[in-house]
Design a protein that fits this description.
The complex is a heterodimer of chains A (about 425) and B (about 1000).
Chain A (H helix, E strand, L loop, with lengths): L1 H18 L11 E4 L2 E3 L5 E2 L2 E6 L2 E7 L11 E4 L4 E4 L1 E6 L37 H6 L3 E6 L6 E9 L5 H4 E11 L4 E2 L8 E2 L3 H20 L8 H4 L2 H5 L3 E6 L2 H14 L3 E6 L7 H6 L4 E3 L15 H11 L4 E8 L6 H6 L8 H8 L1 H7 L16 E4 L11 E6 L2 E2 L5 H12 L5
Parallel strand pairs in A: 1-6, 2-7, 8-9, 8-17, 11-14, 14-15, 15-16, 16-17
Antiparallel strand pairs in A: 1-4, 2-3, 4-5, 7-18, 9-10, 10-11, 12-13, 18-19, 19-20
Helix pairs in contact in A: 4-7, 11-12
Chain B lengths: L1 H19 L17 E9 L8 E8 L2 E6 L9 E4 L4 E4 L1 E6 L46 H9 L2 E6 L6 E9 L5 H4 E11 L13 H21 L6 H9 L4 E4 L3 H14 L4 E3 L8 H7 L2 E5 L5 E2 L4 H4 L4 H9 L3 H7 L4 E4 L8 H11 L4 H8 L1 H6 L17 E4 L10 E6 L2 E4 L10 E7 L2 E10 L2 E7 L4 E7 L2 E7 L5 E11 L2 E8 L4 E11 L35 E9 L6 E10 L2 E6 L9 E4 L4 E4 L1 E6 L29 H7 L3 E6 L7 E4 L1 E4 L6 H4 L6 E6 L21 H24 L8 H10 L3 E7 L2 H14 L5 E4 L7 H7 L2 E4 L17 H7 L4 E3 L10 H10 L5 H6 L3 H6 L17 E4 L10 E6 L2 E5 H27 L4 E2 L25
Parallel strand pairs in B: 1-4, 1-5, 6-7, 9-10, 10-11, 11-12, 12-14, 13-43, 26-29, 26-30, 31-32, 35-36, 36-37, 37-38, 38-39
Antiparallel strand pairs in B: 1-2, 2-3, 5-15, 7-8, 8-9, 15-16, 16-17, 18-19, 18-25, 19-20, 21-22, 22-23, 23-24, 24-25, 26-27, 27-28, 30-40, 32-34, 33-35, 40-41, 41-42
């Protein structure tokens, strides 16, 4: 009996092994990517590029036309005609926290209660989610795993989309506290009237109080009474952590940012900002970046300019506001982030500006631009090679992807099923 | 001689009537108080009907009726004479959509949130509680004195109370608004029958959508017909009573023009005529309204202006709400201009006091006083077939009158009295005689002239021949003049009474308290001078549809144009043509080729090398549907028709035009196994639902399998409706098709016993090959199952939609001959799509299936060209074939590929001009063309966005100006703007917005 069990278990392991990519081993030798167009992430490109990395860190960014010493690179990848990008960073995702949306047991992102700054997405992050490999296959190599629900949902962490467990997948733990702003007036309020939302007054005063109390707590050395919720907020007042406010209405953007500023929050960002076009000067003056609402959204109101979701990145850029692209709190759809954001290239942005939004800008917003976000010497070798323009659906075909120099396995259960059934129908020849 | 005899007979008849009238079967406590008094209203300016000029006539009233009206009527010696000098007499108003006298429907609180499939009480009535044809409003009628008084003070003398509950609502009485006993006030116990699309207080789950409500009504009419013909022994109270009362006028509560056009379709189908209670937005499509040939009852609930506290909120107010505020007061006058008969009602007014203000507003906006009076008297009387009793001051009519102190529709007139069936109700306690006019007042040794104007109850006095200033006040019979000096101190107070119509006499007091006598003699009669007319407000432009990005003109039916220098994706053998031209004539493609020349007068579009593709076709959408896409309350709702609820004003039509979409299939949702009949429309923005319809498209129906139909994700309470497993799904289909086959046999046999069953009718059409199935499906087991059911029962599954595991059974689908309309890459949103892979489309395509990608999503449909590109990415489909996934292939599924889906001579000119390669994420549709007409033009779009901004600002400023001059302001309110997806379910539904 026991033997059968072991055999079954073995069989299962083998089958799973075939489907699920194994987390990559550390970089064992210096790698050089030769040729191709390197999109640096800061808006610049290098044609006929030379990108080298050693020990997981980028060690060379140059062009074939330069005279860099490449003798140390024992492994060379020819990327002629291809494109090299820093790994895209997806913000506001449910990756690792969700598996099957309608199955409650696989939903791990909303804690009970209103004030949960202390809950951490990090420890729930499931590296073995089947969704993750499908996302990184399209160039998204880093994702913010983001709790939702309540008024303060908890802290998100930036995760690298490869790893044995959350400890080795994490890039920036507890990077941002997620604040969900209640809209003061909108048609989603009671009775479909444009009026102050029910409970808004209480929300605002409780939120203000919570922030002021937390700020006071942060100033107290060795508080006599410990409060783990306040404890979790201290990073906001020291500047170690980012406060991300999920808010769309122009007026609410002003109210929420002012509330946080007055409490002494050092770093603030907006997630959503559908109406941010109407408060650009406020955002600029206060140096508030925006992780722009998923571009593939319907206009914010019924008779808004039908193109506003597509134009918004360009408008923010023109007004000098630092922007990135959020993923709409999705799981399985995060793999489309490059294309969703790429749509902005039809409405004013250049392709390089979209890339910048997906890489360096987002890294800056999260304060991790010293480590990732661009192809820069000294930064993590988290990058990928695509057959064509990675923002184009028809061009986005990864041939290689690396996270901190580790070579990712780009097969996954979906590609395996594809092959299996092409074979079944004799279409694989 | 004969003529005289007739007069005699008529007079005798009248006498007989009036003597017999006051009998009562109620016992009297004490001596009976039966009166037989004649009232004579003399010297009044009588407007005897809406189209009559004022004339000095005498009106005799006896026993509730008008017995004589004329200039030379002899006043009987025993009559009570009422001198109406200075007064105007009109027929009293009639409200034929009133809330008076009946209680408001109350919905019982539900004790359980479980769905309710059957009715629990009155089972002898009909299977569905929303059918209330057995209800007779007269049985619930009670005289509500306070309400009656309020209505009388507004000028109303009679009303038709409506009990607003249910889809078929039963009958309603006509009642008088008198005080006293119910019996005295009921004029017609069953005057009209009522209908609506709202289910009302019914606790039964069915219907939970507009499509369900319409289907229920249809089935009910068929059942009533069957019940009458078949002579079945089963008793159904609702059917029996309906058949007895069906010749009454039918009042249909429509709530707006869209529903009115839906009602028109029902009227045509069942050869019925309706009186439609409008919603106030009919002006938006007044030509269509006229074409219905219906009679109308219109509300005066003009919207109030909006509180706009800041610009961020202002941007959220729907454009249509702003426009409606400006244009709604024109609604009645638009009917009058088109000679469409209409009555006005108080219904819909939050506060009845708004009635007079809004009535005058309608007049200010162009409605003539005569038309206004007609809409409150003759027309409503006709609507209830009481035009020989109500609505005019004529001999033999019920004595319902109003007495005013000025012209009725002048802002300076007021209602002094309302007479209801000969009973006089006075609204102001003032002397019988009008004080207004010119008097010579003598007191002490003084004689002064007083010119008295203003309202009868608030006279204003101007003295001459003195430095004193007079103020007059009236108190029942007492008239008081206070004569003040320039400082405002009272010098004399003269109080007295009328001795006759032209003389006053009384006692005066001076400042010291000494008294003296005074008298006044009328030297001239009062003549009412109308107030200066207010300027007629400007009307902003009407747009089609009445929504942002609506056009100022109705679109033409087809167009001609020449597109030059394009990269043309033909979807035909020719493949992609470089530097080619497309000539479109009268909505069809007439030629493709190089260097084509334009016939004279044809628009030439230079594509400058840009790409032109066939219009995008979305096989699976839920946009542009009003009030629910799922009648998911029964396992089969094959009887419902999406076509019944098409909403041509949905902004999503325009948004999707901007993504190149030209044709969509509007599907029922996936809440049940046999969902409902689909509708196919072209995105002809600006048309009515009828104008959007894809003419002669094959009929189709939505089926569904899996988690939705077994209610896996509906919560723990949803464990009652069959089926709960995939096992049950199979069995239900077998049973449904078996019953449909039996039905077909009964139908063939015919006869009076055959009952039309719209559910089985639709299923039978599938068996007859006349209706194509689009089946929502995910996992391989269920796909396999349905193929087996279809093969064994003898029908085809035309298209599997979603079909995310189609790649596992592509060979079986191919063998059956099904199409596959899939999502490009959705997965992991529920358990049944955990094995969905983005290569699905490519595998099925390679296995020989006709494959398309659809949206099922209002947002995704804006960029289906991007979805097509995913077939290239996942599975290396060629770009040309990938584009077909959203053009030609869905056309084939809809069996419309002979008309749309490729660029070929003779096909519909449904084309998209793109800014770049159509599969690029950075490409935009520059022009979207349907039937040769440009429905979306990027340049005009950008201009329109600016114009909308300017128009919004203009209206908001106009509102603020109106608020400064006293117009009330409220918070903007909208109906839910819902984006429906397959599994959207409603608890309840509202059928049409108020704008």
């Amino acid at each position: 009996m026991k033997k059968i069990f072991i055999m079954v278990a073995l069989l299962l392991t083998v089958t799973l092994h075939a489907q699920k990519p194994v987390p990559a081993a550390p970089q064992s030798e210096p790698i050089l990517i030769k040729g191709g167009t390197a999109h640096l992430g800061d808006g610049r490109i290098i044609e006929n590029a030379l990108i080298g990395f050693t020990g997981g860190v980028i060690s060379l960014v140059d062009s074939l036309n330069g005279n860099a010493d490449i003798s140390a690179y024992t492994k060379v990848i020819d990327a002629s005609g291809k494109h090299i990008y820093p790994g895209f960073i997806a913000s506001n995702t449910l990756l690792g926290l969700i598996e099957i949306e309608s199955v409650r047991a696989t939903r791990d992102f909303t804690e009970a209660g209103s004030f949960n700054p202390n809950v951490r997405s990090l420890i729930a992050y499931n590296t073995d989610s089947k969704i993750i490999p499908t996302v990184r296959n399209n160039g998204v190599l880093i994702a913010e795993s983001t709790p939702t629900g309540g008024w303060i949902s908890g802290s998100s962490s930036l995760m690298q989309l490869d790893g044995w467990n959350w400890e080795d997948a994490v890039l920036q733990p507890d990077a941002a506290i997620q604040l969900r702003w209640m809209s003061e007036t909108d048609f989603r309020a009671q009775e479909m009237k444009l009026q102050t939302a029910e409970g808004y007054g209480a929300y605002l005063s409780q939120m203000r109080t919570f922030f002021l109390d937390a700020a006071a707590y942060a100033k107290t050395k060795n508080p006599a009474v410990k409060n783990i919720r306040f404890e979790a907020m201290t990073g906001l007042f020291s500047g170690e952590q980012l406060l991300l406010i999920h808010v769309n209405n122009g007026k609410d953007i002003i109210t929420s940012v002012e509330m946080a500023k007055q409490a002494g929050v050092k770093r603030i960002g907006i997630v959503g900002g559908a109406q941010s076009y109407s408060v650009t000067s406020f955002l600029k003056e206060n140096n508030i970046p925006v992780l722009i609402r998923k571009i593939h959204s319907l206009p914010y109101s019924s008779s808004e300019d039908i193109d506003m979701p597509f134009k918004l990145p360009y408008i923010l850029k023109q007004n000098g506001i630092l922007f990135g692209f959020e993923s709409g709190g999705d799981g399985s759809e995060v793999r489309n982030l490059p294309f969703i954001s790429g749509t902005a290239a039809g409405y004013g942005l250049t392709f390089e500006e979209v890339v910048q939004g997906l890489t360096l800008n987002t890294a800056k917003i999260f304060g991790i631009d010293n480590r990732v976000g661009s192809l820069t010497k000294g930064k993590d070798a988290t990058l990928f090679i695509s057959e064509g323009n990675a923002l184009e659906i028809t061009g986005n075909k990864l041939t290689h992807a690396f996270i901190q120099g580790r070579t990712l396995d780009l097969r996954n259960e979906q590609t395996e099923l594809y092959e299996r059934y092409m074979k079944k129908y004799g279409l694989d020849k | 001689m004969l003529h005289r005899l007739w007069i005699f007979v008529f007079a005798f008849f009248l006498t007989f009537q009036s003597v017999s009238a006051p009998q009562s079967i109620y016992p009297v406590n004490g001596p009976a108080d039966v009166r037989d008094v004649t009232y004579a209203l003399i010297n009044g300016q009588v407007i005897s009907s809406w189209d009559a000029s004022p004339a000095n006539l005498t009106v005799l009233v006896r026993n509730g009726k008008i017995t004589a009206v004329g200039a030379s009527v002899t006043v009987p010696a025993d009559a009570v004479v009422i001198d109406c000098s200075g007064r105007f007499i009109y027929p009293a108003f009639l409200d034929v959509y009133s809330g008076y006298g009946l209680p408001a429907p109350q919905r019982q609180t539900q004790t359980s949130n479980r769905p309710k499939y059957e009715r629990t009480s009155d089972k002898q009535s009909y299977w569905n509680e929303a059918i209330r044809s057995a209800f007779s409003g007269v049985g619930s009628f009670t005289v509500k004195e306070k309400e009656a008084e309020e209505l009388r003070s507004l000028g109303f003398g009679a009303a038709l109370p409506v009990y607003k509950d249910g889809i078929v609502r039963g009958t309603f009485p006509v009642v008088l608004l008198g005080s006293g006993h119910e019996v005295e006030n009921i004029l017609h116990p069953e005057a009209v029958s009522g209908y609506s699309f709202n289910k009302g207080t019914s606790l039964q789950s069915y219907p939970n959508s507009l499509i369900g409500a319409i289907a229920l009504m249809r089935q009910f009419f068929y059942d009533a017909d069957w019940y009458q013909k078949s002579g079945t022994e089963e008793y159904y109270q609702s059917l029996a009573i309906y058949n007895k009362t069906k010749s009454l006028p039918r009042f249909f509560e429509a709530e707006g023009w869209q529903n009115t056009l839906r009602i028109k379709k029902i009227a045509d189908e069942f050869k019925m005529q309706f009186v439609v209670k409008g919603g106030g937005n009919e002006y938006q499509r007044i030509d269509e309204i006229k074409k219905t040939g219906f009679l109308y009852i219109l509300p005066l609930n003009f919207p109030a202006s909006f509180e706009v506290s800041n610009q961020y909120d202002a941007e959220l107010i729907p454009f249509s709400l702003l426009k409606h505020w400006e244009l709604a007061p024109f609604n009645p006058v638009r009917f009058a201009e088109q000679n469409i008969p209409f009555a006005l009602t108080l219904d819909g007014l939050k506060d009845k006091k708004e009635f007079r203000r809004n009535l005058l507003k309608a007049v200010q906006y162009g409605l003539t006083p005569a038309h206004a009076l007609r809409a409150l008297t003759e027309t409503p009387a006709k609507l209830i077939q009481a035009e020989n009793q109500l609505g005019a001051v004529k001999s033999g009519y019920i004595a319902n009158l109003i007495v005013t102190d000025g012209e009725l529709f002048d802002e300076n007139s007021s209602m002094l009295e309302t007479w209801v069936a000969g009973k006089r109700y006075r609204h102001a306690e003032i002397p019988e005689y009008d004080l207004r006019g010119t008097f010579r007042i003598s007191y002490l040794n003084n004689a002064i002239n007083a010119e008295i104007k203003g309202k009868a109850a608030k006279p204003e006095v101007k003295l001459s021949g003195t430095t004193l200033i007079a103020k007059a006040s009236l108190n029942s019979q007492l008239v008081t003049f206070r004569l003040n000096n320039a400082k405002g101190d009272t010098v004399y107070t003269l109080s007295g009474t009328f001795t006759d119509a032209n003389s006053l006499k009384g006692t005066g007091t001076d400042a010291s308290g000494s008294t003296f006598t005074w008298k006044a003699v009328r030297t001239a009669d009062f003549v009412f001078t109308p107030s200066p007319a207010k300027p007629k407000p400007e009307a902003g432009s009407l747009i089609y549809p009445f929504e942002a990005y609506g056009k100022k003109e109705l679109p033409a039916s087809s167009g001609s144009l020449l597109i030059k220098n394009a990269t043309v994706w033909t979807n035909e053998k020719d493949g992609i043509l470089e530097q080619a031209d497309i000539l479109v004539e009268n909505g069809r493609i007439s030629k493709t080729g190089k260097n084509l020349s334009a016939p004279a007068g044809i628009t030439v579009i230079d594509a400058n090398g840009g790409h032109v593709t066939p219009g995008i076709i979305d096989e699976h959408t839920h946009i542009a549907i009003t009030a629910g896409v799922n009648e998911g309350t029964q396992a089969s709702s094959a009887e419902v028709r999406i076509e019944d609820a098409v909403n041509p004003d949905d902004i999503n039509i325009y948004r999707q035009l901007s993504g190149g979409v030209t044709t969509v299939q509007q599907l029922h949702g996936s809440a049940n196994q046999a969902g409902g009949q689909s509708s196919i429309i072209k995105m002809r923005w600006g048309n009515t639902a009828e104008g959007l319809k894809f003419k002669d498209a094959p009929a189709s129906i939505k089926f569904a399998l899996g988690e939705n139909v077994k209610q896996s994700n509906w919560g723990d309470f949803a464990n009652e409706r069959y089926p709960q497993t995939r096992m049950g799904v199979e069995q239900y289909y077998f049973d449904l098709f078996t019953r449909a086959k039996e039905y077909a046999q009964r139908k063939k046999a015919g006869g009076n016993l055959f009952r039309v069953d719209l559910d089985l009718e639709a299923i039978n059409e599938i068996l007859e090959g006349k209706r194509n199935i689009t089946c929502h499906s995910y996992v391989q087991s269920e796909i396999n199952m349905l193929l087996h059911v279809a093969d064994s029962m003898g029908f085809k599954v035309n298209t599997f939609t979603h079909i995310l595991e189609g790649y596992k059974v592509a060979d079986k689908m191919k063998q059956h001959g099904s199409n596959a309309s899939s999502f490009s890459d959705w997965w992991a949103y529920k358990f049944e799509v955990y094995e969905a892979i983005p290569h699905n489309g490519a595998i099925m395509h390679n296995a020989g299936l006709n494959v398309g990608f659809n949206s099922d999503d209002a947002e995704m449909a804006r960029r289906l060209n991007q979805e097509a590109a995913k077939a290239v990415k996942y599975g290396n489909i060629s770009e040309e074939d990938a584009l077909k996934f959203v053009t030609l292939n869905p056309a084939k599924m809809l069996k419309l590929d002979h008309k749309i889906g490729s660029i070929k001579t003779g096909k519909d000119a449904d084309l998209v001009l793109w800014s770049g390669h159509p599969l690029s994420i950075a490409s935009r549709a520059e022009k979207t063309i349907i039937d040769g007409i440009i429905y979306f033009d990027r340049d005009l779009n950008d201009k329109a966005a600016e114009e909308i901004k300017a128009e919004r600002n203009r209206i908001i400023q106009k509102m603020q100006t109106a608020q400064k001059s006293g117009e009330p302001a409220v918070k903007p309110e909208i109906k839910k703007e819902m984006q429906y997806e397959c599994d959207t379910l409603l608890d309840d539904y509202t059928t049409e917005g108020g704008f």
